[in-house]
Design a protein that fits this description.
alpha+beta
Length: about 60
């Protein structure tokens, strides 16, 4: 089954954190099919660093 997962990071090396998440998904029970462009967004709530966001489409036999 195909799933779309939203990813986001605003601490440390944001890009490296998202790349690590993709690698973990692909090494686990999901196969990464597509990755969106990287988007930067303002945080909501208390003062904090800006976010990097992406969406990823994966194929997995695991239930939602």
């Amino acid at each position: 089954m195909n799933y779309v997962i939203g990813l986001g990071s605003n601490l440390g090396s944001r890009r490296a954190s998202l790349q690590a998440a993709l690698a973990l998904l692909d090494a686990g029970s999901a196969r990464v099919l597509e990755v969106s462009q990287l988007y930067e967004s303002d945080p909501v709530g208390p003062p904090q660093p800006r976010y990097y966001n992406a969406a990823v489409r994966v194929d997995s036999d695991l239930p939602a």
